[in-house]
Amino acid sequence: MSGQFLYGDNSTGYCTDHCSSGTYGDIDTNLCLAVCNSSSFGQSVTSGGVTQRLCVINCSLSDNLFGNPQTGFCVSAMNCPDNYYGDPLTFQCTMTCSGLAYFGNNSTKMCITAACSGGAFRQNDTKICVASCLNNNSLLAEEWGDSTSGYCVASCYGSYFGDPQQNNQCVQTCTASPSPTFGLDYMCVVNCSNTTWADPFHPNRICTTSCTSTPTDSYGYNLTR
């Protein structure tokens, strides 16, 4: 056992390099502990074909394990506590992912740099992927889901309009029902401004300053009057 750490095992009363079942070797105290101290996590570690239960500072990222701060053990990301994510930079389960480009992905419970799954959007201040950018504990006025960038944004842009009836997403065509809306100043609105008219015949349903003549002749409805 030369070169190996020995731990006092209360179950056997012996010094051992393999702690009894349910305990982990702690190099700070040289004891077998049922729960590791607050700065380390219990994990089964295999080296040279031999498995030991040890208290480790960093859980094994190669095994996709992360330190659970509530239990004190190394767990898979899916076994991190609710609203926690496996962070590959800190080797721990965390509520807020570290690193500017990392966001918590709910389907995998991992901090990721890739696009959020399931059409979710990256929310900048909470650092999580959200199905809807509206609120979700965000302190930023970024309420619109931009599918082009994959982020929550303060305002839609280009040929896109923020539509509250389509899960607060940026869309090119505003909703016709249940409340007919039309695109104006990057927003879907019920009432167009005094100088524009709602054009239901336009392919993108916009508030226009000049009514279209196709596909059928149309006349503008100024919904503010």
Q: What's the layout of helices and strands?
A:
Layout: E1 7-9, E2 14-16, E3 24-26, E4 31-33, E5 41-47, E6 50-56, E7 65-67, E8 74-76, E9 85-87, E10 92-94, E11 103-105, E12 110-112, E13 121-123, E14 128-130, E15 144-146, E16 151-153, E17 161-163, E18 169-171, E19 182-184, E20 187-189, E21 197-199, E22 206-208
User: Compute the gyration radius: what is it?
Assistant: 28 Å
Taken in chain order, the helices and strands follow as EEEEEEEEEEEEEEEEEEEEEE
- Uncertain residue ranges: none
**What level of helicity do the residues show?**
under 10%
- Provide the domain count: 3
Q: Averaging pLDDT over every residue, what do you get?
A: 89
**Number of β-strand runs:** 22
Q: Count the helices. How many?
A: 0
Shape: rod-shaped
Summarize the main sheet. 2 strands, antiparallel
Structural class: mainly beta
Q: State the distance separating the first and last CA atoms.
A: 90 Å
Strand percentage: 25-35%
Strand order of the largest sheet: 1-2
Textual characterization of the structure:
This protein folds into 3 domains: 1-57, no CATH class; 59-131, no CATH class; 155-225, no CATH class. Helices cover 0% and strands 33% of the residues. It has strands spanning 7-9, 14-16, 24-26, 31-33, 41-47, 50-56, 65-67, 74-76, 85-87, 92-94, 103-105, 110-112, 121-123, 128-130, 144-146, 151-153, 161-163, 169-171, 182-184, 187-189, 197-199, 206-208. It has a two-stranded antiparallel ribbon with strand order 1-2. Strands 3-4 form a two-stranded antiparallel ribbon. The chain has a two-stranded antiparallel ribbon with strand order 5-6. The mean pLDDT is 89.
